[in-house]
Design goal:
Helix 8 crosses helix 10 and helix 9 packs across helix 10. The chain folds into two domains: 143 residues, Rossmann fold, CATH 3.40.50; 65 residues, Orthogonal Bundle (Arc Repressor Mutant, subunit A), CATH 1.10.10.10. The protein is built from eleven helices and six strands. By secondary structure, the chain is of the alpha/beta class. Helices cover 51% and strands 12% of the residues.
Length: 225
């Protein structure tokens, strides 16, 4: 597959070393040009508007913005950035490249409007193939990921897949150690509403306390130990 002009890439990941590694891989291909890098969701949206890249390569687990003293690191930053970019430009091509491959993340990514989903375990050639396919107007989602999106799965992954988008956001915040009051303030909800969602989350995941929730989140790479 050849192109008359370079594919303009916006690279979004909150880890500079990770961005540097992917940048070296990508620019080794003469058909690709990195036009910008971002380390949080807000910056990604701003840089998209400025640079109008052909493809956005986006991690999920990163801050929503950099305006707070203690920046939260959670999947909401990536998902929200995807939704905002797609809202700004329905034709935007977003490729998610993440370590968070278990359910329910692939389904939420596709629902948000991304055109592709790869894990950071992918081979270098696969990343390049995915970028070029998405630039050409195709989707790039492996059969394994498609099977997960279709609902196949078992155990904890299936239970996580049963969470709604709002429950998943609250799950993520609670797994980071935030209190119900802090989650309520962050999401502009009442503490009573957050408590109700927390109860539903515990029921769906068959857990009984925050410690079990945190351990489950660590096992599925939602938060780091």
């Amino acid at each position: 597959m050849s192109f008359t002009s370079p594919i303009k890439i916006l690279l979004v990941d909150d880890h500079p070393l990770v961005r540097a590694g992917f940048q070296r891989l990508l620019i080794a291909d003469d058909s690709i040009e990195i036009v910008g890098e971002a380390d949080n969701g807000q910056s990604a949206c701003d840089m998209y508007a400025t640079h109008q890249p052909d493809v956005v390569i986006m991690d999920l687990n990163m801050p929503s913005d950099a305006n707070t003293e203690e920046v939260s690191q959670n999947l909401n930053g990536g998902l929200e950035a995807i939704r905002r970019i797609i809202s700004h430009d329905p034709e935007a091509r977003v490729l998610v490249l993440t370590a968070m491959e278990i359910d329910p993340f692939p389904a939420h990514v596709v629902s948000a409007g991304a055109k592709g989903f790869l894990t950071k375990r992918c081979a270098p050639d696969e990343l390049l193939e995915a970028v070029k396919a998405i630039y050409a107007g195709e989707e790039y989602i492996t059969e394994e990921i498609r099977s997960r999106i279709s609902g196949e799965g078992a155990g904890e992954s299936a239970s996580l897949a049963s969470l709604t988008r709002r429950e998943l956001q609250i799950f993520s915040f609670l797994a980071e150690g935030r209190t119900v009051s802090q989650v309520a303030e962050e999401m502009f909800l009442s503490p009573k509403t957050v408590h109700a969602h927390r109860t539903n989350i515990f029921r769906k995941l068959k857990i009984s306390n925050n410690s079990e929730l945190v351990h489950l989140a660590i096992r599925h790479n939602i938060v780091q130990a």
